[in-house]
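Collaboration report, partner site 2.

Our partner group contributed sequences for two proteins of shared interest, and the home lab folded both. The records are reproduced in the order in which they were received, starting with the first partner submission.
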Amino acid sequence: MKKLTKVLAACALMGTLVACGNKEETVSNSTSTDANAPVTLNVWAMGEEAKSLGTVAGEFEKQNPNIHVVVQSIPWGMVHQKLLTAIAGDSTPDVSMMGTSFMAEMVQLGAFEELDPYLAKDSATKLTDFIPSTLLTNQFDGKTYGFPWTADTRLMFYRKDLMNQAGFKEFPKTWNDLYKLAEAEKKNGVKAPFALPKNDLNASPEMLSALWQNNTDIIDAQGKSLVLTPEFKQSVNYYTSYFKAGLAPLDLGGELSPLFVGGKVGMFIGGPWMVTLVKTAGGADFANKWGVAVMPTEKSNTSFLGGSNLVMFKNSKNKAAAYKFMEYMVEPTTALQFYKLTSNLPTVQSAWSSIESDPIVGVFKQQLNNVKIPSNIPQGPRLYKAFNDEIEAIIYGKVSVDAGLADLNQQVDKIMQK
């Protein structure tokens, strides 16, 4: 790979107003391999994970007193631009948490250190340690550029009591029955039978799952648009119908977990971090009033597989220490510690043995058997932004479904032009 060419091409692709320097020169100077020399390791993390990472890093420092870990928290809304600016300005950290949707683009930029040479040596970490599906966003052209760190799939969170009052003994298993439950709860006075997002910072798991459950997607394996297919339109009609019928509010009017506990929200789609938020908001008295279920089925009950990876940047001057830190973070004991702090699901298979007996965790494990990842391509961030924005416009009635999909199809074709 010619690094300068890749960087210039990718910057042009993104249309980002940052200066792109010669990465070849910088990378050649990043040759430190002494794991015993005193070093300061700069680590980036996002969201709630950044808060807990400091606690885990403190344990690492106790075991490795020569390594000082500095964790910088980056808001999710700023991370993409900050990454591009840091790459262009040779100011990347040593290690970073990385959203799975950013991986392909950053690999194309030549930003990450390839990990296969480290894995081939006396590495305590093996790729076979991980849940196989979590490796999909870490490997490109047969090379490994990251370790899966947290697994994120989505489930249905629902109020058992509100469901029973609406005449349902069990949580619905199909699209059709789920819609009927939402209608019945609405008649019973539930303000928001189904809380759904109108947009997302990245690829919307809720919107994408509606496509996947109908055996369709935004593009096919060859990169051609599927937006004008009957299955795609059916999925969009299904998703947006909840808003049009007043079953999903345009504005919740507050934070999701307190509204759920207060009976204003009947159900929502959420990840593992929502378990802690619901338990905290509801307390012990709320424990029997809610539950989780796998996603509903149209043609399948496929859910989103996301989460985060750990990567080492190519221009790190502390690569031996950086790899040591990454190995520590994916050890089973560390993965369990991080799970207890954040409710993020572990990616290391052996870490599940002590937690999957929990009824809620067990449903997450069940859903992990039927998951899919967004298209792992450099165009991904732009592709999903166009998708999210167009669905939002349809939800707000700014465009009809047909007009919105026609516009989205044109955008997808333009984005996917080689």
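Second partner submission, folded after the first:
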Amino acid sequence: MSDEDSREILSADETLKNSETGVSRREMIKLTAGAVMAAPLVGLGPGTAAPQAKAPLFFTREEFALVDELTESIIPTDDHSPGARAAQVAAYIDQRLAESLEAEPKELWRAGLKLIDSLSQEMHGHPFMQATPAERVAVLTRIAQNETKPQKPEEVFFKELKARTVRGYYTSKIGIHTELEYKGNTYLKEFAGEEVPPASRQ
């Protein structure tokens, strides 16, 4: 995707504001990062996942490209930090599904990706990867509209897609250190506290 296309996706992303709070979608996603960070981590995260240039472990190459685009559309690169693609979130999802012993999540992803293309075809006359940045945002907006209470299969898939994207991103080095600016356990030379008036110390 060209830089111009990426900027168009970012511009479209910023227009998707919560009507009550005025918070951008990326900011709303960031609010969930605390719960993600607190959750126990099992296995490898994106920072140690196989590079995306290698053959996918679970997805076909076409499916992997679609997952990579979907995750980047949910958490795109912006002026503050790189997005899901740079954090190798698609590789993380691919690896986790390949490691899964359960058939249900694998079936959910296979069917969900087909639903994305079917919906894009219905809305715009072509698959998701052939859609314009604005058309891609329109597809994601439609399947995200009932995120709290998903009913349709594509809405259920979006909830899974977003959850995996958020977890993958905010457990990566980019998500933790660049986006959240986590410094780890660092020594403080001084603690800048507020001076308490003498009368208040009694």
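Feedback sent to the partner group on the second submission included the following. The CA atoms of residues 46 and 201 lie 50 Å apart. Residues 103-124 form the longest helix (22 residues).
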